[in-house]
Design a protein that fits this description.
Order of helices and strands of chain A: HHHHHHHHHEEEHHHHHHHHHHH
Largest interface: A-B, 35 and 35 residues
Oligomer: homodimer
Strand content of chain A: under 5%
Number of domains of chain A: 2
Largest sheet of chain A: 3 strands, mixed
Structural class of chain A: mainly alpha
CATH architecture of the largest domain in chain A: Orthogonal Bundle
Shape of chain A: globular
Radius of gyration of chain A: 23 Å
Strand order of the largest sheet of chain A: 1-3-2
CATH topology of the largest domain in chain A: Neurolysin, domain 3
Number of strands of chain A: 3
Helix content of chain A: 55-70%
Chain lengths: ~500, ~500
């Protein structure tokens, strides 16, 4: 190993430690921070963000990277050479953004989240609107610095998974919208198929135990992770040995926490499954991007967590914790309950079929905001109108409509499409997994998910950033993200359930 | 306001934000961090500690400070000029310690705490001993850099409260030891005066509610703070708007969490009571030092929390949460229970009278370690022998003996004496408070502690670092820390309780 490479690797690890502090502070902000401490947190995160940007764009680091890069890949293994290339790409992106913009962006981030939370809790979008405007302006400015020739929204998309443009996504989403509505129409003609969730209380302390048991069964390692509560479920924590999932509990709805924790466990086992060898904390060991991240969470949530095999395993567990609530229920009843299709105000509680419509709603609104076709102040009305068109209803409140997601509260645009791209990629991956593990679902029914976790660890998590997302998905599943595949899977699934 | 002062003030605030991140990470390490994440946390804290040291010793900062200092105090108010002086002192201390030593110290800190925890949990001192040796070596090295002419242990003492040397403390402690043993002998001749705590379970979820109610009544503001659980109770969090207390719960002993939270609330209201005006986050707004900090916690724990008036308020509350456990008890019974004198293995559960003996034990051992009179490997035996001499018993286990406190696990030497200096200072302060608030205890009995909190806020917390600890204590109480005062107070209190 040459000395200069070692020097680069050490410096990249050190920068990664600083970055992981920011990840940790973000987790704490959403899950533990006292209300009166937002300004302090904002000051902390701004100070550290500026240092991280400064040190990630230092002349010494640039020189080191170019020295190594220009000598070529001879003498390096794939991982080492990838680290040099990734460091170069990241350096080149970072130096494009002026420090004062980094500072300005960091300064409004803490405030933005605080205002979003306040707006949501008081059901008043206008509290958040001015911050959203600032977020969009700054986002536009960053995009311009990163690539003035590209549409600013495409630059945002690139930030979450390189290589997917709004042109790609438009094509995928228009085909998907059509296909989904065909299935949806057939389902609506059939009416309801499931018993409603018993109208009883589900004690939160028992829900806590139940979701922990499920997360651990699915592969979550509590030795290097935690589960906490937050306004909006997420997975964070900042390090692959410190992976922190959150959820929120509803005393009247057991599935609110349970289904969301299955989703988060998909993210968490991705993070926990990243390399822990000498490449730990170097760029190549990091998660690839958010399409692949969501492929893991949605594979687990949809293909596993909403399967018959899972109901066989999980329903007896639910009965163990809530014996009085489910006296005359069977696993099949529970399977039908979680697979019932119907309007849901909240994206994260939507069924598998209508979920992409929630995504399309947000994606279209984001594009319109970035194209000046709608104004921030009118976003609430635009949301309600588009919701009526796409989902068939207007939300009952601003809190359960335009304010429901934390993403805009984080100043994060271009994220939503990755959920649906991820759902499709995850579904393809699951089918590939099943071809080499035909008995897997028999094991799932017994609560044994170890083969799936190993397969995901090996084929996705440990791969880190060695390939692009497009290349990883193709090499694992044999094809690019394929809308036909996905629609066929959904049609076959719901045909059996709704008997249409 | 001159521009250069503003520049200094902004930079000191920024450094303080970085420092507060370290405070936060320390809180998390002791209360939330998954076991497998210690190395990651250590890497994070090392990276940030090094940056903070580097930026606190930068040439630019030094130049700015000296430019301002050399022009003199004209045109500044007391607070501003104090900030310049404190910045100079802090800069001069920081540049004395080489960066590589800062790095080495930071590197072993995370590991040290992890090993202490492991040693305590597996009741095996030898797991921790090698780290303790490293801590002492590094501590000695730091002391030498800070002041090669002073005894290294005196430099350690200075780190927690400037101005108290081991010579001062020896004099105080020898007088105290003698006085305490006289009172102790009289008490032992009388035997037990209190009923034992009922041998029943105290449900932890109810303890959580009880201690929160008590902390809030005493003045803890949940809007800018939290209460969590940790192996060893402490107050941290890193910012005066984000003050995080911890405690630990024992299902068999209600007082374990309750008494420790009263103590921590004293620290917490100090932190929460610091200035929030334009001087927030500048040196002058910071807590003075640990003698004064402990004076606040021990004033609350001992003079308030163990008073008759407090029992009048608190005992009905205890009965509200635990109606079945205390059927035939009165507030007076509870008062006697918490004031019962007798051997306690754990320092933090010791009664007010024998508590200083626990401190003297640790202080003498620390001095012996720094004077090479005992070796680290023999510390466990030395602890046990000295415990027999001072306290009359050998601890039952290493976990409840030499490993019981987190301080050495943090590499922190010279801290323990501040508890007893603080107890004496706090007791004097409380007497001063009573002279101007003669009805205070009548209000305490009704659960109203607001006058006390206001008095502490005004006379101690808001004063920040304007004076030295010695000067603050004298100006508030009219005298330096006075052993006779303290012994008189204890003698009068226990005379009434034990009727000797």
């Amino acid at each position: 190993m040459n000395k200069k490479y070692q020097e680069l690797s050490d410096e990249l690890k050190r920068l990664s430690h600083l970055g992981s502090i920011l990840g940790h502070l973000g987790w704490d902000m959403q899950s533990k921070l006292p209300k009166g401490a937002f300004t302090a947190r904002q000051n902390q995160m701004t100070a550290l963000t500026c240092i991280l940007h400064e040190q990630s764009t230092s002349e010494d680091l640039g020189k080191l990277i170019y020295d190594l890069y220009e000598k070529g890949s001879d003498g390096y293994n794939d991982l080492e050479w990838k680290n040099i290339s990734l460091a170069k790409r990241s350096f080149e992106d970072s130096i494009k953004i002026p420090s004062e913009l980094i500072k300005r962006r960091a300064e409004i981030s803490g405030l933005g989240f605080q205002k979003w939370l306040e707006a949501k809790q008081s059901n008043n979008y206008q509290i958040f609107a001015p911050l959203l405007q600032q977020y969009i302006d700054i986002s536009r400015e960053c995009s311009h610095h990163l690539n003035p020739e590209k549409h600013p929204y495409d630059v945002c998309l690139d930030g979450f998974e390189r290589g997917y443009t709004s042109k790609d996504i438009d094509a995928i989403f228009s085909q998907l919208k059509l296909g989904l509505s065909k299935i949806y129409n057939k389902i609506q003609a059939k009416g309801s198929i499931a018993k409603p969730l018993p109208k009883q209380k589900f004690e939160i302390s028992k829900q806590v135990q139940l979701i922990e048991e499920v997360a651990v069964a699915l592969g979550f390692d509590k030795n290097i992770g935690r589960i906490d509560t937050s306004e909006h479920p997420f997975t964070g924590g900042g390090h692959n040995t410190d992976v922190r999932m959150t959820t929120r509990y509803d005393e009247n709805d057991l599935n609110s926490a349970l289904l969301s924790i299955i989703h988060e466990t998909g993210h968490a086992i991705y993070e926990q499954g990243r390399r822990t060898d000498q490449y730990q904390d170097t760029p190549v060991s990091m998660a690839l991007g958010m399409v692949v991240h969501e492929s893991q969470s949605l594979l687990l949530e949809r293909r596993v967590g909403q399967s018959r095999a899972f109901a066989e395993y999980c329903f007896p567990l639910i009965q163990k914790y809530f014996p009085e609530q489910f006296t005359s229920w069977t696993p099949e009843d529970y399977y039908l309950l979680v697979n019932q299709v119907g309007p849901s105000e909240l994206r994260i509680e939507a069924d598998e079929l209508t979920y992409p419509l929630h995504i399309i709603l947000r994606y279209e609104l984001e594009k319109d905001l970035f194209n000046h076709r709608i104004e921030v102040k009118d976003l609430n009305e635009a949301w309600n109108e588009r919701s009526l068109l796409l989902l068939g209803f207007k939300p009952e409140s601003e809190a359960s409509g335009v304010l429901q997601d934390a993403h805009w509260g984080d100043g994060c645009f271009g994220y939503f499409p990755v959920y649906t791209l991820g759902a499709m990629a995850g579904s393809q991956m699951y089918e590939t997994f099943l071809t080499s593990n035909p008995d897997a679902e028999t094991n799932f029914a017994k609560g044994d998910f170890s083969n799936l976790k190993s397969w995901m660890n090996k084929n996705i998590h440990a791969k880190g950033q060695l390939q692009s997302a497009k290349s990883l998905i193709s090499s694992v599943t044999g094809t690019a993200i394929n809308v036909d595949n996905y629609l066929t899977y959904l049609d076959q699934k719901y045909k059996k359930i709704y008997n249409y």
